[in-house]
Amino acid sequence: MGPVSGSTAHETQRRPARVPSHDELPPLIPRPALAIIDEAITFLRVDPGLLFGATLIVLLPLRVISAAMPGSQLRDARPDELMDVVVGNASSFGTDFAPFATLILESIALFSVASIFAHVAAIWYAGQPATLTDVLVVSVKRSPLLALGWILVHVLELIGALFTLGLGGIVLAVFVTLTAPIMGAEKVGPIRAIRRSFNLMSGTWFHGAIVFVCAGLGALVMRLAIETAPSVIGLELLQLPLWAVAGVADIIASIVVTALVAAVSTVHYLDARVRREGIDLDMAATRAFDESRTGRSR
């Protein structure tokens, strides 16, 4: 046998994307709110490299942008001054604005990641492989629509909050909570996605509100846990500088929490479609007919 060329060796070593079995994916059944959180973790376990990798690629540039924005003290601070910004000892406009900018950019990242996860879920449930490159290319191409979707969702929430002392904003936030996964899974525009979200959440608003609250509380607890453990290890055991420990712990917490909430949003979307549209029956029938055709062809 002759020598293998470089390109051939590269193709030989390249592994095809794995197609998860239906047993690995969250079952398409209606489930209680806490079970949706549990199945979100199951979803993340299917391919952690793909899902957390996509989260990192989306989130990290936005965090860099928030740190480099004009007015942010992180641009010119020395390493020993960074912790003053983190804990709020400084009181300039940059220190007050930077956390607000970070919050907005993390919200945009969450919207984008939720869309990516739903796109991946649609591919997996269709029995197709998904690669990180492919899903990111689709996300980049649709980024203007995703940005518009994020703006419209938050404008609706803001309008509802202004005229109802905040209560309307909360109500609308639950109704539009599925906008991002709808845009990712169904590849529709933001206005149609918002309408679809209203339709899917109609009649299941209280269930959606419980999922909404549970996801928020779970994200808060997880962020505190992740930021506390590395801080203790880095400061007490490794004697690392406080600013370095805080920065690393914060970015790790952001990646994990963003991925978890995006996975919850994706599973919630699937749950809503099961409740409102019986998508589980449609997919079961499709698989049954596919297996029947395969059997007859043998």
Q: Please, could you describe this protein's structure?
A:
By secondary structure, the protein is mainly α. It has one domain (30-284). It is 77% helix and 0% strand. The protein has 13 helices and no strands. It has helices at residues 6-13, 33-46, 48-68, 82-87, 93-125, 132-141, 143-163, 167-175, 179-186, 190-201, 205-237, 242-277, 279-297. The longest helix has 36 residues, at 242-277.
Notable characteristics:
single chain, mainly alpha, 298 residues, 13 helices
Summarize the structure.
The protein is mainly alpha-helical.
Describe the secondary structure blueprint for this structure.
Elements: H1 6-13, H2 33-46, H3 48-68, H4 82-87, H5 93-125, H6 132-141, H7 143-163, H8 167-175, H9 179-186, H10 190-201, H11 205-237, H12 242-277, H13 279-297
Helix pairs in contact: 2-11, 2-12, 3-5, 3-12, 5-7, 5-9, 5-12, 7-8, 7-10, 9-10, 11-12
Class from secondary-structure proportions: mainly alpha
Which stretches are poorly predicted, pLDDT < 50 over at least 5 residues? 1-13, 73-95, 288-298
Helix content class: over 70%
* Large-scale geometry: globular
Q: What is the number of independent domains?
A: 1
- How much beta, percentage-wise? under 5%
Give the number of DSSP strands: 0
State the order of secondary-structure elements, H for helix, E for strand.
HHHHHHHHHHHHH
Mean pLDDT: 78
Question: What radius of gyration results from the CA coordinates?
Answer: 22 Å
- Report, as a whole number of angstroms, the end-to-end distance: 36 Å
- Helix count equals 13
Specify the biggest β-sheet. none
